[in-house]
Design goal:
By secondary structure, the chain is mostly beta strands. The chain has strands at about 10-15, 15-25, 35-40, 50-55, 60, 65-75, 80-85, 90-95, 110-115, 120-125, 130-135, 150-155, 160-165, 170-175, 180-185.
């Protein structure tokens, strides 16, 4: 594919390895040919590089697929998943994933895992997840006209701000991209 067709979120092959395009900027200077500035994250090691490619040059798209996989458990810095269609088990390294993913992983839940051949590259979270509140302080009576909040902890260890009426044992919906409270479930 041409460099001008590369979008943020795609996987491309660069020097024989799969990279996630985490940022893309198209530049068309007044003098000279147009080019694309890319910020690429190595899919296995997490190393980030910046690359400039002329818009007429080509780059190969990585052949990746998203598979349904059940999260089983964590073993050190490795996460064990099972493919729900073949029952094959595989490890995903915490080093290759974004830092914000692990507080959203619940044992026994199914997630989309991006695979490059037999090599797992990333775990895709749903936009919203239902979680149980395990620790919540009691709300104090007082001025609540300003939308007062308190800090609670969920079953996975995620700490976030919620309205005062949420108590321990409640189920809440959390936005996985921002880590913010959405509503009570």
């Amino acid at each position: 594919m041409k460099a001008s067709g590369i979008d943020k979120g795609m996987y491309v092959l660069f020097r024989g390895d799969p990279y996630l395009v985490s940022d893309r900027e198209f530049v068309n200077p007044g003098k000279g040919s147009a080019f694309v500035r890319l910020k690429l994250k190595h899919a296995r090691t997490g190393q980030v590089i910046r690359e400039v490619i002329k818009s007429h040059e080509t780059m190969e798209e990585a052949d990746v697929e998203a598979r349904d996989a059940q999260y089983l458990y964590a073993d050190g810095d490795q996460l064990l998943f099972m493919d729900v269609s073949t029952y094959d088990q595989f490890n995903v390294s915490l080093n290759t994933m974004d830092d914000g993913i692990s507080p959203f992983l619940k044992e026994g839940e199914s997630y989309q895992v991006v695979m490059w051949g037999d090599d797992p590259l990333a775990v895709q979270l749903p936009l919203k997840m239902k979680m149980e509140v395990t620790e919540a302080p009691h709300a104090e009576r007082g001025d609540t006209a300003t939308g007062a909040t308190k800090s609670v902890t969920t079953e996975t260890g995620l700490t976030l701000q919620v309205p005062l009426f949420v108590k321990s044992g409640d189920h809440i919906v959390v936005n996985t991209t921002s880590g913010a409270y959405v509503e009570r479930a």
